[in-house]
Amino acid sequence: MARSERARHWRYGELPDVDLLRARYVEKRFVRHTHEHFVIAAIADGVEVFHHGGADQYAGPGALALVNPDTPHTGRAGGPEGWRYGAVYPSPDLVAEIAAETTAIRGTPGFSSPVLDDPYAAGLVHEVLRAADEGNALAADTLLRVVVTRLLRLNGGPLPQRAVRTAGARVAVRARAVLEERMVDPPTLERLAGDLGTSPFALLRAFREVYGMPPHTWLTDSRVRRARTLLDAGVSPAEAAVAVGFTDQPHLNRHFSRIVGVPPGAYQRERKNVQDL
Question: Where is the HTH araC/xylS-type domain (predicted)?
Fold first, then answer.
């Protein structure tokens, strides 16, 4: 990480279903990836640009970048000064619980627009992080619920259900299942397509249409997700790298940092600090 960049990705024991991030990035470029949780990122300085929904989105000071679970997106600075932000990543179950209690949304709740200009809500996100830093569980939990409620009321609605109707979509789903099962030793695109009774380019098109990224990008994203689970369980970064199919720890380090925003060792140390409290 460049000397002018810094980041902390952690969890607070009293908010077990929420990841927390405070960061300043200048040269950092997040590759296309997804999150299992919601992303609520409040920009403090600079501009973040992230590709989402087929277009570049711009979030500046006082705005929030909002990404629903399993939604492909990227991230980079919108200028030479970089950007500084704080983010909370609540789980889908927690957001659904808050939505059911405080909104009229029916179905699976989510955000309608990827950028919302709301300095008040952005300030609440930073207050959640401050309360977690100070060990103020009541404030952290209260403020998190307030900001999620506000964002859902201003910019929320039911997420569309992804239907798997076409033959191509069904092939993409089967391909994903194969890659999940063979994460450590995946087949080539040609072999995978042949086993599924289609051509490589037909599979590539179908997979991108369903999952928003080609199979090899999806596989890297999935490997990092599984590595996070192993690191949370106390597995060393070197062991996690091999377990998810990376050649060695340096390969895990590179991909992990480009998706999560911090190296796996720093990520695991923060998790261990929470467990030791």
Answer: 173-270
What's the pLDDT at 139? Answer: 98
Angle between helices 215-232 and 237-244 (to 10 degrees): 140
At 36 the three-state DSSP class reads coil
> CA 120 → CA 99, 125, 166, distances in Å?
19, 9, 44
Hey, CA dihedral for 156, 161, 166, 172, is it positive or negative? Answer: positive
pLDDT of residue 202: 96
Residues 6+ apart with CB under 8 A from 120: 150
Whether 272 shows a pLDDT value over 80: the answer reads no
DSSP string, 243-277: HHT-SSHHHHHHHHHHHHSS-HHHHHHHHHHHHH-
Domains parsed from the chain with CATH numbers: 6-158 (2.60.120.280), 167-276 (1.10.10.60)
* Cβ(13)–Cβ(60) below 8 Å: no
**Integer Cα distance of 71 and 248 in angstroms:** 28
Split at pLDDT 50, 70, 90, the class of 95 is very high
Report the distance separating Cα 169 and Cα 163, nearest Å. Answer: 9
Chain-centre distance for alpha carbon 119? 22
CB–CB of 246/223 below 8 Å?
Answer: yes
The answer to whether the predicted template modeling score (pTM) of the entire model surpasses 0.90 is: yes
Q: Tell me what pLDDT residue 276 has.
A: 57
| Among 120, 40, 50, CA closest to 86 | 40
Map 54-107 to HEC letters.
CEEEEECCCEEEEECCCCCEEEEECCCCCEEEEEEEECHHHHHHHHHHHCCCCC
